[in-house]
Amino acid sequence: MNSGARRGGFTLLEVLIAMAVLSIALVAVFELFSSGLRGLSASDEYVIAAVKAEAKMREVLDEEKLEEKSWQETSDDGYRFDVAIKKTDAERTEMLPVDLMEVSLTVSWTRGVKERSLSLKTLKMVNKKI
Length: 130
Prior knowledge:
With 130 residues, this protein is of the alpha+beta class. It has one domain (12-127). The chain has helices at 12-61, 90-93, and strands spanning 69-74, 80-88, 98-111, 114-127. The longest helix has 50 residues, at 12-61.
């Protein structure tokens, strides 16, 4: 028998190196998976905030008499709404029977230590006060 011949199987060093490479690869995969979940969670929060902001904007625009004002309110589930209504382009509408009102709405919420916000802005024509 040849004394230089190797026996079948792996040495302890080869097994340890293979385990180290495998663990590094698994950590990288888990890190990607966890960042994907964080992104999905943030996306879900923005969708919820957009739905709430659109509902609040419809509520504001449905008011019978839209006039210049601003206010802030907080929902039961922690979303804060900042609403501002102001006249815009007064020089362009001075000869018209309508005013152009700009409605700005910002919804803000906190998750963990980060404060996030989403803003909507629109215009609405209203009859001038006589």
